[in-house]
Amino acid sequence: MDATTSPRRPRGALIAWLVFVGILTLLSYAARLSGTETPDDLAYRYSTSIVALIQYWIILAVVVGIALVSRLELRSVLALHRPKSWPRSIGFTVLALLAIYAAAVVYEQVLSIFGDWSPTDEQGLVPKEWDSRRAGAFVAFFLVVTFVAPAVEELTYRGLGLSLLTPYGAPLAILVTGVLFGAAHGLLVALPVLAIFGIVVGWLRVRTNSIYPPMLLHATFNGTALLVSVSGVG
Predict the structure, then answer these.
(1) DSSP string for the chain
(2) CA distance 143 to 173
(3) Across the chain, what does the average pLDDT equal?
(4) Which of 16, 112, 131, 202 has its CA 20 to 30 A from that of 180?
(5) Which pLDDT value is given to residue 7?
(6) What confidence score (pLDDT) does residue 29 get?
(7) CA 223, 102, 112 angle in degrees (round to 5)?
(8) Which helix (H) or strand (E) holds 209?
(9) What are phi and psi of 37, to 5 degrees?
């Protein structure tokens, strides 16, 4: 039986998932509120990519562990199956991506009314210019942010999380996973747009009944943001 249509899900798995993403959120905000200044050259440090890889492997291990301990069918609960129609799914993906960009533009305009605030600058991960002397470190960072991060984050929120919450209603599952995804980044100014991102990608997951279109959208969004940042276009 498919994860998005199954009427029952173990409450223990849902509680474990909520506790886990709650811990991730608390750790992110604790790091943000600690007052530690984010270096401007994080994208040009090999250590950044290595630490990120370790963190994502831990997150993935916990997500898979919750599913296995709860005796859930891994492929189903993580939505690891192809969509019935790739052309239709690509269309939904493009539509969702455009909606996210539109929401980001509107949000930036709203923020400009109140001052020089930028959701991108708040996170501090996107480099402001290209440094050819450290191209290797940037490529490593690009690969992690464009491929590893989207895969693990989508499996965590739109995979396991959405599957466990869907029995309570797809709209609620989309909303909760979207907000929790946004909160897990530990940001304040960028929280609304990150939550919108998570909600839109959750919608895409439900529409396509597969985790792969959300991964594709997430990877495209992250990769484009990095390339634009170093190209000097943004």
Answers:
(1) --TTT-S---HHHHHHHHHHHHHHHHHHHHHHHTTPPPPTTGGG-HHHHHHHHHHHHHHHHHHHHHHHHTT--HHHHTT-S--S-HHHHHHHHHHHHHHHHHHHHHHHHHHHHHSS--HHHHH--S-SS--GGGHHHHHHHHHIIIIIHHHHHHIIIIIIIHHHHGGG-HHHHHHHHHHHHHHTTT-STTHHHHHHHHHHHHHHHHHHTSSHHHHHHHHHHHHHHHHHHHHT--
(2) 29
(3) 90
(4) 112
(5) 43
(6) 92
(7) 100
(8) none
(9) -80, 135
Task: Dig out the tokens for 140 from the structure.
Answer: 């490593």
- Amino acid letter, 97: L
CB 194 within 8 A of CB 103: no
Q: Is the pTM of this model over 0.90?
A: yes
Written as six digits, the tokens of 30 are: 């604790």
pLDDT (0 to 100) of residue 61: 98
> For the chain, which residues make up each domain, given as ranges?
11-231
Residue 48: closest CA among 131, 122, 145 = 145
**Model confidence at 3: pLDDT above 80:** no
Distance of CA 223 to the CA centre of its chain: 13
**3-class secondary structure, 36:** coil
Angle at 19 between CA 17 and CA 25, to 5 degrees: 105
Tokens for 103, please give them. 């929401």
User: Predicted confidence band at 25 (pLDDT cuts at 50, 70, 90)?
Assistant: very high
Query: Rounded to whole angstroms, how far apart are CA atoms 131 and 118?
Result: 22
Cβ within 8 Å of residue 81, ≥6 positions away: 75, 209, 210
Q: For 82-121, what is each residue's pLDDT tens digit?
A: 999 999 999 999 999 999 999 999 998 888 887 766 666 6
